[in-house]
Queue: 4 jobs
Job 1
Amino acid sequence: EAGVAQSPRYKIIEKRQSVAFWCNPISGHATLYWYQQILGQGPKLLIQFQNNGVVDDSQLPKDRFSAERLKGVDSTLKIQPAKLEDSAVYLCASSTLGWEENTGELFFGEGSRLTVL
Amino acid sequence: SQQGEEDPQALSIQEGENATMNCSYKTSINNLQWYRQNSGRGLVHLILIRSNEREKHSGRLRVTLDTSKKSSSLLITASRAADTASYFCATDQTGANNLFFGTGTRLTVIP
């Protein structure tokens, strides 16, 4: 079974530029998550999708971050304009369970490391 | 905000020794999970313990949960150099429907 795919693995941009990350979850997984992990910290949830609907985006900085999950499969996370403090690893995860169920095991991708100069 | 806090922040042991990591959290939970993260990689699920369970085993892993103290521990027995990684606890908070990760324990196993 293929795992969660993410791209690009690494991205370096100047502040105020834009960047987009792509995630392809495990086939059949209804729930998709984007986490931000700053160096030395644990992952912090940015947004959670159930199929193609947003379940939780309360911690997404909506003035600069946006995300979508078209057709309930792939997802993209965009940052525009980027700030220095956005330097982090952006992790995508998926789960078989729906948002109304207790959260089970999450399957993570390898992450996209963003450096903002 | 992050739910769990791991202790210690860093742990260094000799190969063959046991490693114990602790996690404390603040609110009621449905379950608690432990994940491992090798440097530069994604997180890998290790074990899930439900709120009505007190202890669970998986291979060399032993997890305990004390909901009255809002704490959990992860024991890795007979450690190997390949166990070197960061370990995170994550709580499925009641009513939240997603996971809140702690700050992690960085484990180094010296061959």
Job 2
Amino acid sequence: GNSVTQMEGPVTLSEEAFLTINCTYTATGYPSLFWYVQYPGEGLQLLLKATKADDKGSNKGFEATYRKETTSFHLEKGSVQVSDSAVYFCALRSKLGSAGGTSYGKLTFGQGTILTVHP
Amino acid sequence: DTEVTQTPKHLVMGMTNKKSLKCEQHMGHRAMYWYKQKAKKPPELMFVYSYEKLSINESVPSRFSPECPNSSLLNLHLHALQPEDSALYLCASSQESVQAINYGYTFGSGTRLTVV
């Protein structure tokens, strides 16, 4: 089955430090890969995505590259801010089955990484 | 409209109460989901609706009863819950098409449920 493994947290950084959160996956076929962010007291927001090998997703200064050869999708940011403090979830989506003549895929999450950024 | 709206935001209920959580989206998404999330953990899938039909029930206890009255609405009816059911309940929706895997889910802000 599909699975996503994220680096253990929590991660604590000073403002303007470089951030890497590792994510590796196991999946059959060609999944799409996602990073979600959850700020305190809120739901999950899609941060970025990549749908095929070598694609780079980017948003709000965050980047991640879909590496099929290493089955990885590591999240990076060059200079973190206090406002980036949140829980980050790596996820993948692959074709599950069909319903109503179309197909959809179940989202599989990693365990999440808590990021705390200090001033 | 690119949002999933969940109500109420907070709910406290006793173990003998009956309550309902509501979820609404107007993005034309034909797949809708209920998730349960404990603090600092990933969301756990509970139910999936596709074209208003229940397609996945992840062995959820019968005290949780989902309902999809139409393509925009999703309800979760709660009855005789236990304190361990206290959690953040998230609704999500997504496109339902052959390219669906290229798109993520859109999540609501959740209902913070406390069972006393």
Job 3
Amino acid sequence: QQQLQESGPGLVKPSETLSLTCIVSGGPISITSYQWGWIRQPPGKGLEWIGSVFYTGSTYYNPSLESRVTISIDTSKNQFSLKLRSVTAADTAVYYCARDVQEEWLRGYYFDSWGQGTLVTVSS
Amino acid sequence: SYVLTQPPSVSVAPRLTATITCEGDNIRSKSVHWYQQKPGQAPMLVVYDDIERPSGIPERFSGSNSGNTATLTISRVEAGDEADYYCQVWDSSSDHRVFGGGTKLTVL
């Protein structure tokens, strides 16, 4: 079973860029049946999908965040990254990376392995 | 965009059955997945593809999907089942993943 671990600063100033990396261990990241996703959860609130990336670099973003988000992948390092620009206090959340599994016959996608999550606070 | 609606809270006594619903337009045409999240922990997949259980998930957890409502059923509820539960689908028209708002299960 692959394991995922988020890393990055826990504090970001307003208007700056939030940058996180997810390191994947226990197997290659370049598997055709998987994408790799970022999900966040503001304190006391629900889950919000941010976006997902395929090993080829193809990306899929939540339309509510698309103008500020970039997700990239580095297969040589077995990791993928999130950049969220122009952050505000509303971006304060626990950020999770997860393995995004494609179902047979493209019925859908689900997240079967998650990192432990990392709290990012936006504050001056 | 596709919207999933869950009740904010459900309460159940131990050893009884908990039912958590997830409503969406013609949701039966989609594959529904369910996650359990305990305080301070990452979410964990408990049901995928409407009815399937990942390895290690007890048979007490089951799912169904019909019409505009998908349901997660937890039989013989235990204190350790107390958690937040989220449903999730893939919206094929936009290629986006969508989560429901979550349901807090309280074991009385």
Job 4
Amino acid sequence: DIQMTQSPSVLSASVGDRVTLNCKASQNINKYLNWYQQKLGEAPKLLIYNTNNLQTGIPSRFSGSGSGTDFTLTISSLQPEDFATYFCFQHNSWLTFGSGTKLEIK
Amino acid sequence: EVQLVESGGGLVKPGSSLKLSCVASGFTFSSYGMHWIRQAPKKGLEWIALIYYDSSNKYYADSVKGRFTISRDNSKNTLYLEMNSLRSEDTAMYYCAKDNIGTTLDYWGQGVMVTVSS
């Protein structure tokens, strides 16, 4: 099974900050990496699919990059509604999730 | 607007059974594969099952194979997960999610809680 490792597990930041979240796969997953946002009591929301494609309706402050085994999600200017948990997900070989990064207010 | 609404969760004893439902709206349900994913308390997400749009293929995680059955009724826009021989480690929030070719899990429900405890 492909293991997905996210870092950091918790990130403290302020409104307006630029933040980068990391996701590393245990083997090559090509471009097949998605990012999701999860808020307490809400359905997880797809932000980025296949490394760098913005899902319809997602603000352009979210962007993704990477290839092979190393991927990043960048939020260019944090908004109050962005404080949530983010997890990565690979669908190159079966389906596995990262353990998540909790983005909290500093 | 795509909506997925799960139901059927609850508190059950080890060894018992439970059947979850997920009612879909806002898209042509019969054209898309569907998944079940779960998240145990304070743990990460685990994919557990996939069913093709026409029920022709079904896939399961090893952790639930032989105990859980995924099914669907396209006439009712409803996805099911029948869970047998439940164990304490099956305690989790269960989500249904819509598949999309090339994108995979593009929409999720809000989840339903299943607690297995004596």
